Batch of 2 targets.
Target 1
Amino acid sequence: MSNKQVCAFLGDDASPEVMQPTIDIIEDMQLGIDFHYPAVGADAKSTTGSLFPEQSKQAIDAADATFFGSTSGNSTAALFYLRWGKQTFANVRPSQWLPGYASPMANPENIDFVIVRENLEDLYLGLEGDLEDLAALNYYSRHARANLADLGPGKYAIKTITERGSERVIRHSFELARQRGQKRKVTVTCKYNMLSTADGLFLDTAKKVAEDYPDIDFEHFIVDDFLCRMIAHPEDLDVVVTPNLYGDILSDGAAGMIGGLGLAASGCYGTDYAYFESAHGTAPDIAGQNIINPTATMLSAAMMLDYLDMQEAALRLRQALGSVYSEGRILPRDQGGTASTTEFCAAVRALL
């Protein structure tokens, strides 16, 4: 059996400090994965004249998956290609508390749900500009009871929800609820009371898709109501699906409930491709200090192993990580410990 091929982008600032040791751990597990490091950003610009050269794009296309480090801008072109070029429409962000996580919640023991964020539409299409550009269209706000041209100078952003985009991410969420085999429930949340046309389409699409999954419970809440429920009763949740912006915000909140963004893994799935990255940023304030928490990166790697049909290895990695936390001797700084990134990674490697 031939090896799996994975493209790796180490990212910017503190990101390489967690990406490289995680890759080293996976290579030590001898799973039959070949890692490739396509040129991107400033290094690629200096040698090829492009921030994202064609050969790097071809490397992504030829790979079975991509492992992506957090970027502050140098790798944005590669990230956008992984997202819109590869049509990775479902951003899956698990939120599961493990013993040893420094959760601010009084009783975090039963927090184990997933937020599925639509990854390609909504306000993230970047359709922004000057209000005066829309004046000729005579758009009328029924809420403000005025034409846009009457509001004065300003900016606009267009929110876009499509039937196709909604249907595929919602169906992905129902399939995920089946695979998880836990509460077997899908919760849809958006602002369908105020945005009855755009978010209303997302909800209506979910209701139609739910008819194809009679074995999966279905519920829906307005997003502000849902946020309150997520904090008060996270144990009621299983798979949550939402348009792009809400999912970005809610998943960071969910990470805060279990102990912070240093624990927040992420995988972005399309029909025939996926890439994996931690949900946190590049942490420039601690770059070079060897204290960034590698947990989110390791858990993202475990999601990648699942995707590559290496479920046993993914389980081993998660169990080793969980054991280090439950023992409580070697914990990252953001989880109340004193361990360096290197020390924490060594502890996980020792258990593998």
Target 2
Amino acid sequence: MSKAFEQQGVEDLRKEIDQLNHEILALLNRRTTLVKAVRAVKDAEGRAMPDPGREVAQVQTLLLENPGPVTAKSIERIYREIFRSAVEDSVPERPTPMLAGSRPMLRRGGVMVGDVQVGGGAKPVMIAGPCSVESAEQMEETVRFLTDMGVRLIRGGCFKPRTSVFSFQGLGLEGLQILSDTVKRHGAMSVTELTSIEHLQDTAAGADLIQVGARSMFNYELLKKLGEVQRPILLKRHFAATVEEWLMAAEYLAGHGNDRIILCERGIRTFETQTRNTLDLSAVALIKERYDLPVVVDVSHAAGRRDILPALARAALAVGADGLMVEVHPNPALALSDSQQQLGFDDFSTLWASLFDRRGGC
């Protein structure tokens, strides 16, 4: 260290460092402004950006001219970051609808399903029932149990789009009739999935809440037709959809006249193999924070296994979900579909007691 620096106190040296920080900041901004100008010219000429060869040559020149004490390794690291940041900052800003916080066609607050409010400050709700309607006896036993517990929204799959053609495909219109009759008899509301425009009118007549399944989220013709039906819609997120694509699907419904939409997060596909999907709770938090739209979480399809459902349910409510969807079956081991993720009555009773009171809310 030179004698000139030795004669300065620590505070004087720090003041000089602070001044250099300001000068470096000004130079970085000036450099980025120039990079932006270069990008504008290159974009106009159709030339690539950046130029890796030029960046390497620049670093080599600086290394030859570097008097120290900054090491060559540090010079390479610092300028690599400067080059990367300048190129990123030079990209022209584009409007991003997801960050705008505004979805003018979508209804904020709550959505009524019969006399049950979902979202809008109401207590979280429970949607429960078997993966598939299998028989009148199965539904009678399940609906009686759930309504005695206080559940008002009963799910049951009638048309089942399965990955394997050899899997149980549901009872179709027969199952829809069983679901509708049983649920009405017990004073509750029915929730079931519509898979095709062909069954739109029957489903609208037999279901109180129409579910658009994950595989149908990108079926825009189906969404357009559902927009013309005055039934509340439960819109599930596709397992490979971004939040923006999910909201765009909701806008198809709203744009065609139906803004009574409840979003449903059911997990996205990742590289993980120990669960059926990966539950994206950040999407739930984002939707509640940015848009105040009703959103429930299907923990059964997210996990694909019953042992971690209680933990996922608690986590979903903790981030602000307006409700849960849970699959319940009288005898999960004998279920015709998704047996490993359905809860038996005892397990559901334990979950219900830990989350909900008998009024149907947390």
